[in-house]
Amino acid sequence: MKKDRIIMLSDCQSFYASVEKASSPHYSNKPLVVAGDPARRSGIVLAACPLAKTYGITTAETLREALAKCPELIVVRPRMQHYIDVSAQITDILRKFSDLVEPYSIDEQFIDVTGSLSLFGSPRQIAAAIQDQIRRDTGVYVRVGISYSKVTAKMACDLWAKKNEEGLFTLTREQLPTLLWQLPISQLFMVGRRMSAHFQSMGLVTIGHLAQLPLAELKWRMREKFHKNCDVDAELYWRIANGVDDSPVNSATYEVAPKSVGHQMTLPRDYYTLKDIKTVLLELAELVCRRCRKLKVNGAVVSVGCQGASFDAPTGFSRQSTMSDPANATNLVYESAVALFVLHWDGQPVRRVHLSLSSLSDESQYQLTLFESRPRYRALEQATDDLKNKYGDTIIGRAVSFTDAGQIKDRAGKIGGHYK
Ligand SMILES: [Mg+2]
User: Fold this and answer.
1) Which of 15, 129, 222, 357 fits a disulfide with 230 by CB distance 3.0 to 4.6 angstroms?
2) Which residues of 78-98 are buried (b: 16+ CB within 10 A; e: fewer)?
3) Over the range 296-318, which residues count as b (16 or more CB within 10 Å of their CB) and which as e?
4) Which residue is catalytic, options 20, 65, 102, 108?
């Protein structure tokens, strides 16, 4: 039998707030939040330091609510580029312990130390050394989950290391039944509130209930429950509950901007109705998917967005979501794009629309991997999306097939590919 790997997930506590406190020592004993626009009380709290949290302040609430709970709160404007730099600095620290380091989000990174044990000591000693050095060099406190796979390291961190005194926790294969399986199903990685309710209604109250079902039965029961084939999802949850994850810690995939195939269209006039916009989305989905099919790639992440006509008063958004399966079929991508658009469009007039597919994979070899199907840099992209919405539309500039000005001009006379 092959020997188990030793994989860790390090997660920064209150990342943005910790970075700010580290760079302004006079704030060290004060409650601090990083928030959208400190001048406007409607700004959103992006991160709260542990001290601020003791006042009941939580991320995603408004600054007004936070200040009501703690009038002496220090409010700091976000410095995204600085956080990205500190995240890269943490990657460099981790690389001293192993060359296999994979950033998972702006404040979470996987590290495979299987080959480093003889050099640096036991897994726990390595994790403690990582914790010390990151704290010393950046002022950020990391919690570390230690296990034999990425998915179990992630759960070791979220479910135990974040909640105990040392900020370290080892979850072994042998402990799954006695520790992981005892927890309620809502605690399982990737299970949200809605899915948790579904599982409970199926009698799957603990993680162990799900883990101990034969996979074929889980597939069958989810198919009955949701009236459609959910085999991919069933297998995903079953693997997570059983700690089955062979995916490597992939240092080669370190890239901030995933490759994407995208297209945008500038419209001849403002569009006001979803019906009109859907025509444009269909045209864009067809262009993007045709290009993907030609390249023989599927995309897992669909991004969609729009802008209004005014440069002085910019409106619009750019958002992305992961499809349940990577695809290059026009109808699937179109459906995801419409769903995303409906969710985020505030009804303002639209003058430009873009659509792209990213997290591309070879269409012939789609396989189930727990981490590839999620956008690796979701937190980072979320953060950068916000900046782009504010400062301009560079997401499209990333796209491989970005239309040049001439094509946009040409397209401007057309709707859904037809001249008006
Ligand atoms: Mg964190």
Assistant:
1) 222
2) beeeebbebbeebbebbeebb
3) ebbbbbbbbbbbeeeeeeebbbb
4) 108
Domain boundaries, the chain: 1-174, 180-241, 255-419
Please give the single-letter amino acid code of residue 255: E
Over residues 225-268, the pLDDT tens digits come to 999 888 888 999 999 999 999 888 987 544 433 478 888 888 88
What is the separation, in whole angstroms, between the first and last Cα of the chain? Answer: 67
CATH number of 255-419: 3.30.1490.100
Nearest partner of 258 among 343, 372, 352, judged by Cα: 372
Cα 143 to ligand 1 centroid, rounded to whole Å: 8
Q: Is 283 a catalytic residue?
A: no
Beta carbons within 8 Å of 75's beta carbon, 6+ residues apart: 32, 33, 35, 38, 63, 67
| Distance in Å, CA 241 to ligand 1 centroid | 22
Give the rounded distance of the alpha carbon of 253 from its chain centre: 15
DSSP state of 404: P
Ligand 1 centroid to 383 CA: how many Å? 14
Q: Does domain 180-241 have CATH number 3.30.420?
A: no
